[in-house]
Each structure stands twice: as C-alpha cells, then as structure tokens.
Amino acid sequence: MKKSLLLSLAGLCASGALHAAPATYTIDPDHTFPSFEADHMGISVWRGKINRSSGSVTLDKESGYGMVDIKIDLASIDFGQDALNKWAQGPDLFDLAKYPKTSYRGKLTGFVNGAPTEAMGELTLHGVSKPVNLKINSFKCVPHPMLKRELCGADALAVIQRDQFGLSAGKDYGFKMDVTLRIQVEALKTE
To answer: What residues pair up with 66 in beta bridges, in sequence order?
Structure first.
C-alpha cells in the first residue's frame, strides 16, 4: 500500500499536478504599447503612447501567483507631434535628463481560472514612487504559432493623478491632473 501511494505521489509530482513552477515571460517590445490620455485645458483629450518598453513577467497560473517588472522608456513618448514630444521630455514636464528611469513593479492578483484580474504595484515616475493598481480587462495565453512557445497577452487600465508624481504642468491653466493609462502587453515564455 505504501509503495502504491509513493508511486502515485511520484507520478503526480512528475506530471506537475501538485505544483507547477512559475514560468518567466519576456515582454515583446513590438507588441507592447503603454498609451495614455490626458486633459488639455478641458477642451480636448490628448492621447499618446510609449514606443519602447521592456521587462518580464513571472507567472504560475495554477497557484495564482505572478509578478511584473516593466521598464518604460519615456524618451520614446509619442503624442504624434514632434515638438510636443520634445517638450514633454524636457525640464517642463518629465525632465528626462534628471529623471531618466520610469518603471512599474507589481504583483498579479485576483486570479480567476488561471488568469489575473489585477496588478497591485508601484509606479516610479519623475523620481517619485507611488502605489498604482492596474485593472486587467483581459488576459489570455496561447501557443505562439511560429515560435512554438506560450505567448500571453493582457489589456490593463489605471487612472493616476500626475501632480502626485510632481508633474503639474498646466495645472494653473485649468488642466485636469488625471491621466488614464491603457496598457497593451504581450510576453513570450522564456526558453
């Protein structure tokens, strides 16, 4: 009986049924675009995106565990207008010469059927770190058709108050400080 139980237990362990190890996924920079929406004096909404980002995700769908570590390259900010891009990188807004690094680190939570519904983490922007939780609107993993590795993707959303990060340009002119972040991300399982 003991031998039978041990053999069954060994079989479960070998099949990964007891606990699958977390997998690491590398952010695909060609399919990941954080974007944002910000007020322009209450008369319009300016939209833009970040063209370069990198990072990794650690994910264990079975145990409901995950971590994200993302680097955001604000030098690639794109409003669709070169003069505005240059201004945003300068001392009046992001001041990239003084604050070149922007990142988001967090824990994936609220797993439902192996998929996280939220990331609870910290955004570091303009030298300030603040808690920012991302609502994950969709999350899905599939086999990559060409690379034959698992590919996961998500669509996430958060609203931040930019003046809490020291980015209050335009506040005196009536600009609202809330910024909507929309994040399209895809990550490929690391071999």
So the answer is: 59
